[in-house]
Amino acid sequence: MLKKIGRLFIIKTRFEAWLVIYAIALGAVERGRHYLEIYPGFGGWLLALACTGVVFVAGAKLLDSVKPAQPAVAMGPHSPVLRRHSLNGRSRPTRLPNRRASESRISRRRD
To answer: Which end of the chain is more exposed for a tag (fewer CB within 10 A), N or C?
Structure first.
């Protein structure tokens, strides 16, 4: 019985995640409004901004934790080709040498 009740609190779809984010945003705006009444001035605005900023962090975490829906139509029988190495055969980028030619022509001009 507890498992059945526990399943009600699991977010399974992105739609449910968006509904939870909306509810968090409503609560955050209300809490921010209370902070503006209690702490007038810069401190209240700073706390209200922090309340609304939390919605972005929590929303990103919620959306990342839910699997995106599978596409209705398959793209094709073949998977895309992934490049494992760059064209020069190295797996990591290399630093470019410092060249005088990288400066602009105006800065090298001497009269």
So the answer is: C
